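C-alpha cells help. Our protein:
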Amino acid sequence: MKTFYVLLLAGWHSIAAAQQLPPPAVTVNQEAVQLSIEQFTPVIENWGSRKVVVGYEAWLDVKASEGKSSLLFKAQSEVAGRWFSANFAMTAKLSCSGIPVGMMKMYGKRVGNESTPAQGQLIEVRHQLDQCQQVRIYLAKEGNLSRQFYTKIEKIDFSLKIYAETV
C-alpha cells in the first residue's frame, strides 16, 4: 500500500512538471505580463514523511532595463483555493536580481460553500536598481502547518508591469 502512495505522488509530480509553462519575459515600458498557475513552480518542502507545497515561484527575465536606475513596479494578484480550503493567507514577495522590491499580503475566505479569492496589489518605486535583469515572484502560503497541508491552490492570476521612471 505504501508503494502505491509513492507511485501516486511521483505520478502527480510528473504530471505537474509536464504542464509547466515557461514564464514570459517582462519588458520595461511595455504591456503587463500575465502569469497563470501553469507558469509558477510549486515550492515543495518535506514535513515529516510528506512532501508539502508551501508556495509558488516564477522567474521572469527583464528586458530593456539597462541604463534605467529608477523602476516602478505594478503588480496585481488573484489566488483562489478549492472551496473547502478557501480560508487562507498568502504573502507575495517581488525581488529584482536579488534586491527586494515589495511585498503584499492576500487573504482568501469561504462563506458557506462560496469562495472569495485572495487579491493583492503592489505599486513600488525602486531607485539605484541598475542591474535589474530578473524578477522573482514568490507566493508563500501562510498559517500553521495544518493550513499549509489543507489549502489547495487551484488558480493564480498574476499581472506585472515595470515602468522606467521619467525625469
Q: What stands out?
A: The longest strand covers residues 50-63. Residues 20 and 38 are 5 Å apart (CA to CA).
